[in-house]
Amino acid sequence: MKVFKTIKDLVDRLLVFLSLSALLAMIVIILYQVFSRQILKSTPSWAEELSLLLFVWVSLLGIAYGFRKKLHIGVGFLVGIFPEKLQNLCDLFAKVLVLFFGGVLTFYGWKFTMLMNNSTMAGTGLPSSVLYAALPVTGVYILLYGIELLFVKGMHQEYNDEIDTEAMEEAIEEGRG
Q: Looking at the 3D structure of the chain, how many domains does it have?
């Protein structure tokens, strides 16, 4: 079990590192694009396409991160009025749907990525599959986090009006780690 936890921690750190690195690169590229357009009067052809590619990766990896931290919106007011056994059944059904979604995203994302392998993006010259590879990568992360969700109660964080300073500090520490 300790080996699994170590591997999971590494996978989690990789997700956060990739997401934050892509976000930082996207910000730098957009700033450079604006600077070169306004000051140098010349826009690099690759900047917009590369920032779009990074935006897709950051967005899709953010979906997986949302499952990891149970951040996705849940409509619990209807389920909350059901008896506890039915609530647990709805919870299990939602988790199975997450696993199904992760599987579909992985399978069809991989197929589409392979299909787009022979085309290139005009601005960067990169294969289009670099853009679409975010789909199966996100699918794998969703599958991993979906499996983990099967072993915990609930799919969403409980709503709380108070600021959770511990969670904020934990997120800041993860970003540094």
A: 1
Locate 143 and state its tokens: 């599958």
Q: How many CA atoms lie within 13 A of 40 on its CB side?
A: 10
C-alpha to C-alpha distance for 91 and 43, rounded to whole angstroms: 50
The torsion angles phi and psi of 62, rounded to 5 degrees, stand at: -65, -35
Segment 75-104, tens digit of pLDDT: 677 777 888 899 889 889 989 999 999 999
> For residue 19, what are the domain limits?
2-176
Confirm if 67 and 24 have CB atoms less than 8 A apart. Answer: no
How far out from the chain centre does Cα 51 lie? 17
Distance, in Å, from the CA atom of 146 to the CA atom of 154, rounded to the nearest integer, reads 12
C-alpha–C-alpha distance, residues 57 and 50, integer Å: 11
pLDDT value of position 164: 64
CA 3 → CA 6, 8, 75, 141, 147, distances in Å?
5, 9, 35, 18, 16
Closest CA to 93 of 74, 107, 77: 74
Q: Which of 47, 34, 68, 54 is nearest to 130 (CA)?
A: 54
> How much is the pTM?
0.82
Lowest average pLDDT, out of 6-10, 113-117, 134-138, goes to 6-10
Q: CB of 106 within 8 A of CB of 136?
A: yes
